[in-house]
Amino acid sequence: MITFDRVSKRYPEGHEALAEVSFNIDSDELVFLTGHSGAGKSTLLRLIMLMERPSRGQVLVNGQNLKGLRASQIPQLRRQIGVVFQNHQLLFDRSVFDNVALPLIIAGNSRRETGRRVRAALDKVGLLAREKDMPITLSGGEQQRVGIARAVVNKPRLLLADEPTGNLDPALSAEIMQLFEQFNQVGVTVLIASHDLALISRLHHRILTLRGGRLIAQPGDS
Amino acid sequence: MAIGASQSRTGIADRLRSWQQHHRLSAADSLMRLLRSPFSSLMTWLVIGIALALPVGLTVALENARSVSVGWDSPAQISLFLRAEMSQEAATQLQQRIQLRPEVAAARLVTREEALLEFQQLSGFGDVLENLDDNPLPNLILVSPRQRQLQAEQAATLQASLQQEAGVERAVLDMEWVQRLNALMLLSQRAVWALALILALGVLLVIGNTIRLAIENRRDEILVVKLVGGSDAFVRRPFLYTGCWYGLGGACLAWVVIAIALWWLRAPLSSLALLYQSEFSLQGLGLVGGLQLLLLGSGLGLLGAWAAVARHLSAIQPR
Predict the structure, then answer these.
(1) Is pTM beyond 0.90 here?
(2) Which element (helix H / strand E) includes B109?
């Protein structure tokens, strides 16, 4: 589903965020991406979203080389990827429902279809009763779950999460991870960047570790 | 892309419907946003309204002036002052002969008695004139050339040829003031156009700046929309509608301002017209002119918004 082939990212000011990173994530996999802050986790995710372009190497998402995508094709790519952010990136001027509906409106779904899918997604994260509330009235964990509902509402095959439990206590964090595992079980490829080693090592999934922009060999990797 | 296959397919008809739906939503939402902050919106509308009302109002004034001067556009009346010794009968014969000329539309004889009477009535020198032993005024033939004779040089040719008629003391063609008036009208028109251009530029800048602020205010929203796959057109749409609403609202206010100004001027103008025994009545913008003004306002709004959006929206990229 995701292939990095000797990918490097060097910023104009000379800082090398990623160096010669190569890995492959199969469909239906759930993979953790870990490392200290500044190790390049966010940069790696941004390359998949085409928020950045690599300096060298190639990124393939679902067999498609991102190098060939023009700027005008980026929205189409992003519609196929669900993203969860550490700071939720919710819009506080509109209701929970409208927040979750945003990707569907952008993708051009009918009103009825939008309503059905938003409620299904909110139901999945256990917030169906809060659809009319404003995000500001929700707790941090609830806000993160709204963010997850928005990420999955368009039924993406690929789900990216950047420190999704960064601001949450351990119990809530475990709950959120469970949600990701559930999506993974129904066939969604999930890539989660997290520095919460204690949490992710308890869950038995592959872990990619970045250090100084380089991928460290994993036990079990060939 | 194969990922798309697992997502719900959206057909062309669905896409068209959702495109229309987003246009409706953007239009309604951007209007609601303006109405939710009525004071600042009103300020912007007023600025645009005044900037539009000034040149459009002046154009209306010029149109009115032109409609007045159309009545004067055939003023090239040639006055033939006849020699004093010429008899009444000879004068009538001359008048009839001139009347038959192909380039003459009408020739009217004003006898010296009629002229004296008119002069007494209109000049207020009645008493003085009564004391005169003799009527000092000559017989007069007023010649109106046909329409096609109206060009200045043709009128001058006619004047010269009439001057040659026996018994004509002097043929007077007074066209200079018409030419001056026309030149003045042309100048005012140019000036109004220049003013209109400058003010239109001002409207563009006002709207562009307002839209720039709106973009800044909604920066977070733009970022999120771009992150979840909103196209540039999707992001742009609400701002373009906002610009349109600003322009349209400003144009509406301009229409109202012009209507009020005309209403205010109507009474004194009609009494002035009465003094000049003129049928003149003030012409307003009219329905078509008003709709054109609204179209112009919306167009300027759209253009200003487009400029702002093109400049500032691409700078907002998810980081």
Answers:
(1) no
(2) strand B104-110
